[in-house]
Amino acid sequence: MRKKILIFVLFLTVGSFSQNKQILYNFTSVPQSLLTNPGSDVKYNWYFGIPLLSGISTNVGSSGFSAYDLFADNGVDFNVKLRNVVFSTTRKDRIALNEQIELFNGGFKIAGEQGDSYVSFGVYQEFDFMSYVPKDIAILALDGNRDYLGKVFNLGDLNVKAEMLSVFHLGFHKKINEKFILGARGKIYSSIYNVNSTNNSGYIYTIPSTQGVYEQMIYSNLQFNTSGIAKYDDEDYDPNVVKDITKRAFLGGNLGLGFDAGLTYYPKKNIQLTASVIDFGFIKHTNEVESLTFKGTYKYEGVIPKFSSGNSAEDGYQEFKDAVPLDTLYADYTTWRPTKFNTSIQFSFEEERAEDCNCLNYDPETIYKSAVGAQLFVMSTPRTPLVAFTTYYRRKIFNSLQMKATYTIDSYSYKNIGLGLSSMFGPVNFYVLADNLLEYRDVTKANSLSFQLGLNVIFKDSKK
Amino acid sequence: MKLRAIHRILSILILILFSFSCASDLDYNQVNDIKLEPIFISNLAYFDVQANQFVTEGVEQNVIFDAPTVDVFSEKFFTEKLNRVDLFFEINNTINRSYRMDLVFLDRNNQPVHSTNLIVPAYSGVENIVTKTEIFQNATLDLLKRTTKITFTLTMLAGPPLSESSVGSIKLRSGVTAYFVVE
């Protein structure tokens, strides 16, 4: 049992989903919140993350079904469970995994006369996977077409992408004035491998006909792009996976560029507005690219003997293979990163009148003990964007302990309660954030879970 | 004091949450039990021969013949995953002569592996359809899987003579129902 939980958690760690970091966003006592908004109102002199431990983040989600639905050890035949899952989901349901581990991360303040500036930088490794449920193709595989005369099977249901990459980033953030903070971050992506098949279309149908038994048509426009994995297909190649991954992770892979931008604005002392755009960027795949295409149109009539020359030698199956060929291409392609957009509004209350109050300081964490707010998250996907709405309550429990509780509604769940804690013991900052807490009653039945934790060393200003 | 109380409540809450958290037993090995049994339908053959095609320069051609390639059953995927095949034949005759259609399934060495025939009576003004369904399983299916060609022979049986201006046609519609088992 314990082992299985461990495997499941490991599974979560390897894969992860919506990439909504609603607890981390604007939780400024954690320096990693700068990665969700480069214009976060952070306060530190300098900080660094404990290498490999500073930011571990995983996110899994599956709308429509859970791991339990498919893999429950409950005596029900797997094929029955598989059918139930396929027939209870729609082509809009999706599985997504996202995982990030910071290799290192750090930042420092540049004091200025007008206002302080902050520089932050680091490298993290990221894995993304997203697939829609290929419903019609699954029905064809499960049932075939006999019982679906007249149904048009949509080949565009096939929509999947996976990528492992490392990201080198450098961010700069400037306090323009007491009310306004602006930040930006440049990123270089180094793709370790990429698989994507997201612009598919096509259909297959079978309808009764008077000429022939059926009218049967296939139109296929399928393409499957890969980079960084083609050579493992070659039997003669003796792979050295570790060496390959290390080389590609450190800028030896397919490269891309991106940027983040964000701001924080205080229209009033106790009201805060923020917004950010994350991962607006692309990767150009030129090395080790291999694409498979399955494109064409064919109307299958069967063999039609002509009786004229004695042997018409017509071969429908060969004709089909010629009309809808499976081709291999080696052309460059470009993928866009899933771009994330965040925005929030926060009202702070319970003013704390510290003796050494610097009343020009707008930092809500030092002046106000409590805050409530709302956040909106939007992420681009191959189809309609993913949207999540969060309300939250933030509270300073001690000077050294901050808490943020969230309630989020999105397409995976309408009862997602999350909790984040960030503590400071001396200069050591430890944070742990988890959402979908209600699902911890049985994690295997959860539709989505996310988990982030990390250790940083933060040196703040001695003067408050 | 108040802070301490909040802290205590919070710690207890977190403790409760994680101690009550659990995971049902999952068995990923179930994937090995996967068994797909799709049933596909498709056309096998079609022709529509006009009455006057049996007459060349005023002389009746009593036998016409063709042998198109049908190698779909011998594809690797089919030979491995096919469990049963139903072949459906329907002849609709609107010519005032009776016919016999012979089908011979040939393997790559042109050796017959299966044969079948349909006899359709002469058209007399009412719908004149003959159907036949053949089921291939086990040994007969193994023979079908060796098929690479089917010869179609139409033999016109005795009756009133046809001319270049005779009306009607003999029409074949044939379909396949293929039962797969993928494990």
UniProtKB/TrEMBL annotation, chain A:
Pfam families: DUF5723
Domain (DUF5723): residue spans on this chain: 38-435
Database matches in InterPro entries: DUF5723 (IPR043781)
Top-level taxon of the source organism: Bacteria
Name used for this protein in its record: DUF5723 family protein
Species: Flavobacterium yafengii
